[in-house]
């Protein structure tokens, strides 16, 4: 068996998930190849470290303390805020939201004047809008 094939099957070898024939071939290769044997030993040490780190010790009273702290915070929040603030805050935000939506709708609608003579009409605005056509951009930038 070649070294590359051993490296590909090494994890399965260490976890004993290979068929018996392949396990035997990998074992024989590890006995004959010192580089692969060293690599397998390092891999085995790494798996050992991971197993130790994976096992987390759980404190049995952790959940009880967290639950008690959350209940205390909820009671402090309910007692600490007056009724007027708890009611006015959502109402104020709702009114602001409705006003913002109404303003957005009004701003999105085109402006139509009732009389057509108010301010500058479209024909009077064209020279101002097309001001760049009258003068080339190079001359404008040079000034």
Automatic annotation (TrEMBL):
Transmembrane segments: 87-105
Keyword annotations: Membrane, Transmembrane, Transmembrane helix
Protein name: Zf-HC2 domain-containing protein
Organism domain of life: Bacteria
One Pfam family matching this protein: zf-HC2
Keyword hit for Cytoplasm: no
Source organism: Draconibacterium aestuarii
Domain Putative zinc-finger: 3-37
InterPro entries documented for this protein: Anti_sigma_zinc_sf, Znf_put
């Amino acid at each position: 068996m070649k070294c590359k094939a051993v490296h590909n099957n090494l994890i399965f070898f260490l976890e004993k998930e290979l068929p018996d024939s392949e396990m035997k071939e990998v074992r024989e290769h590890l006995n004959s190849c010192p580089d692969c044997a060293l690599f397998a030993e390092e891999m085995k040490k790494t798996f050992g470290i991971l197993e130790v780190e994976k096992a987390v010790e759980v404190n049995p009273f952790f959940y009880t303390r967290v639950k008690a702290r959350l209940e205390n915070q909820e009671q402090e929040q309910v007692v600490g805020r007056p009724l007027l603030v708890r009611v006015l805050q959502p109402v104020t935000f709702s009114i602001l939201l409705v006003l913002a939506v109404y303003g957005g709708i009004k701003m999105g609608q085109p402006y139509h004047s009732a009389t057509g003579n108010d301010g500058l009409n479209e024909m009077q605005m064209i020279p101002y809008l097309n001001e760049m056509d009258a003068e080339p951009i190079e001359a404008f930038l040079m000034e």
